[in-house]
Give the backbone structure.
Amino acid sequence: MRQTAKHYASPAPLAPDLRSADERDKPSRNDSLVAQLATMTGGPVGDHALIGRVRFWTPMRVMFALAVVILALSWGGKAPCIQQTAPDADGVVGLDWNNGRQYIALCYSDTVPLYGAEYLNEGAFPYKKQWTEFGADGKPQVRYMEYPVLSGLYQYGAMQIAKSYDAVSEKWDLPGALEVVLYFNVVALGLAMAWLVTLWATALLAGRRVWDAALVACSPLVLVHAFTNFDALATAFAAGGLLAWARRNPVLAGVLLGLGGAAKLYPLLLLGPILILCLRAERLGEDEDYGFGSTWNRLGPLRTGLAAVAAAAVTWVLVNLPIAALYPRGWWEFFRLNTERHADPDSLYNVATSFTGWPGFDGPLKAGETPSILNLVSLLLFLGACAAIAWIALTAARRPRVAQLAFLVVAAFLLTNKVWSPQYSLWLVPLAVLALPHRRILLAWMTIDALVWVPRMYYYLGEDRKGLPEQWFTGTVVLRDIAVVALCVLVIRQIYRPAEDLVRREGVDDPVGGVLDGAPDPERPWLPTQLRPRTSKALVPV
């Protein structure tokens, strides 16, 4: 008999689909920090709530809304640096960077001075335009655009848009501004969209722990550094590459990581963890179906990883080749500058110099002299760290997750490198969220890292203008590095104690693993004993 409305016990007909995503992580119930924050929005989710049935305010849309707010606040933090002066006697206005305003207001962004320093204001094409600078020794040096190809072309495209709008606004009497201000806003809009892509990909990679990605949306590092430089472009490609790998499309993953490497080199570092984990999963000499799907099931994990590496290499070459062929000196400028530059103020090498007076590995250097020993030491330290991470990956009783190794490799690169520009910390944000989803720990590190910006700016201001001594800045750098090392220790601990890994609960293996997710973990008798798991039988996913 057909029921009518009066036969229902509930005020309205029951929903036709009563499924609930109960396996989804519920931070308002299992995380004390989130539980306290949830009191502002009605309290923790109920015991009998239907999870995943909300039509509009899905987790992704909530995090997008939060990210837009944080990005807007980040733009507001840089806004004092795009304010203009009053007209002078000739009616000319310019940016108000008088009396160190960019440091006092904590609003400095590389994008603003680079507009003139790299002659984008003249419409110059990157890598073609050259200019002469004079070093501290008074010797001239020919300079070019100092960024990788995609970052340089992004700046060129933003410049063209800014100039086009400036021309249109003048012709049609539309709201206008200084050309450099228009340029900054165009750059910021593109970087904001890139960070939203980073958030989107990270949320999908988080799987049942989708709310972990809220830290990508609300990170203090995003608040401070989203528009400090162009690094959000690389994080978007890196996160997209990992998502493609997780969805078992190694060629697309390689293409995206190759594009990321053409914007900033760090996305290429992610290929190392993928390849070493594929090596661990390989069963040489065994003719078995790995169960990876129709396309890759006959190749095996190692050749699948090599396909991603090959795709990344081809993509990087194809992007770089036209510029390298047409403007070889301009294309090489990025590599030349990184070879010749000395230890940056926020590197561990400069920290040692700051507190001890140590002259560095190369001793006092003149302008233009290459710190050859420092370059070699930095490279050897990084390679040694990579070797240690590879040993951990091969000898752990259970195969580590891709995100865990990716975080360790990028963190090792930053800690051992002679340059750690403040915005580089954005590289770690999505990787840390996926590798170690302990919200309070991550929030503490992000806050420490973001606050380094304050003494940095007042150190650059100079003591003669009531700035801070160098040691105030380098001291906070030490705190940041200790925090990052502590995160690495926790990640390694969970690699060796997978039962403590929050991601691997509820029968999950590796959401970012792609062909490695849920795959068997063989003993690999073809490897030396020192490179095999420490147990006689490799663990299988629980």
Q: What stands out?
A: The chain has a mean pLDDT of 87. The chain has one domain: 54-531. Strands lie at 131-134, 140-143. The first strand starts at residue 131 and ends at 134.
